Amino acid sequence: MSNRLSPPAMDPASLVPRTSSSYPKQYQEAVKKRNKRVLGDALGLRRFGVNLVELAPGAWSAQRHWHSAEDEFVYVVSGELTLITDSGRQLLGPGMVAGFPAGRADGHHLVNASGETAVYLEVGDRDASDEVRYPDIDLVLTTGPAGRVFCHNDGRPYDED
Known about the structure:
Number of strands: 12
Structural class: mainly beta
CATH topology: Jelly Rolls
CATH architecture: Sandwich
Helix content: under 10%
CATH superfamily: Jelly Rolls
Radius of gyration: 16 Å
Number of domains: 1
């Protein structure tokens, strides 16, 4: 058997990790040490997204958020992550999972509070009507005439600041 993979298989290490964030500048710092390998796009998946994510010590997966129309699922591959929701904190280790149903207004994110890099798989559907709310900060991700746009809670786009 050859170690060389061809579609529909692939080695995630062959993808360049995405290290940037589309958040407005003032909300990017917490996710700067997050690396995502966008597996779903690389495999041509259109109905759901799949990312292999590495969080360095101290990094956050995202700002705490919830989705109006998109389910999310995470599976911890390695390391330890702290899941923070409206209910509090829980420690997740390898093999543990968490799911976030669409429309449940329970802000969540993962934080790597350990001293080692953690890796997890995130899966979400790609509902074009999805709106993302960030309960701890003045931020909403919505769909406007030009596509996805970050707005203040009062509806003003961030690019108009």
